[in-house]
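ok so i was messing around last nite and threw this chain in just to see what happens. nothing serious, just curious
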Amino acid sequence: MTSSPTPLGSLHGSEDKVTQKDPLEGLPQLPYSLRDHKSSIALIWTLLALDAAIIPLTLFYPLWYATTLKPAYIFAITTSVFGIISGFEWVFRSWALWKKEELRPFGGKRNGFDFFHISYSVGYAISLVELIVGAAPNQPFIRLCAMPAPSFILFFGGELLLFSIFGALGMSNPFQISSQPKGAPVRPGTYMVIEDVIAVDTGAGRPYRAALNARYEASPMFRRMLHQLSLFWAIPALLVGGGVTAAVVTEQVPQTIAYGIGWGVPPIWVGIWVLITIQWVQVALKREKKAWSQQNRV
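result:
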């Protein structure tokens, strides 16, 4: 937009100045880009894949078919290595949230954890109990030992769906959830997951928590994207988790095949959904910025 006409007496050696309005003015920016952290993200997902599927499967089948070890010994070995990587991640997050105030949610206390950490702890505990109980007898319950992965996605899918339902009903937080105070409107579960993971696991801290909150409050398109992503993850998680559980407990399915289904299918589904989510978010953010620019254009 051009400036006001300059008086004739001031034209000696001067030019009309042109000022342009920032097309993204008013849209809070997020101080984190997936493109700038591709290597670290790939490393994290590789380690999680090792922990969630590759290690359990590569240990179980060779020990089952290529050795004369009793089933109790085989599951003693597979159970002992389960969650080593996840356990280190849990310890790291616990220490970071306890030690570094700048990583905690706003209003969070030193002895408190964020939403993702609590949810992850509960899901991990459920999976660990299933493994311990399933592997304890002299004749292990192989089908129960195949349940940690589907149980984990069932738990998270149910949690995400509940937040979506509570939000649609206009309910308020009964207590503080991450940086959202008690009494604030319930936000989609994906909001808290994104806030907590990027703030703590990448070290972005409270500046990112504040920026994400500002973006959520300012942009209707951003809010709609997170609501849609919650349902995109919640409903398939329940369907996949339920389907895998049905296959695992069906007597007609051999136990060794059920073990492979239980440990193999959920991580494959998660990997596919992560790739789709990345593309979806990139497209949605571009559309959001384009719409915002058109709205601000004079």
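not much to say yet. The CA atoms of residues 130 and 144 lie 6 Å apart.
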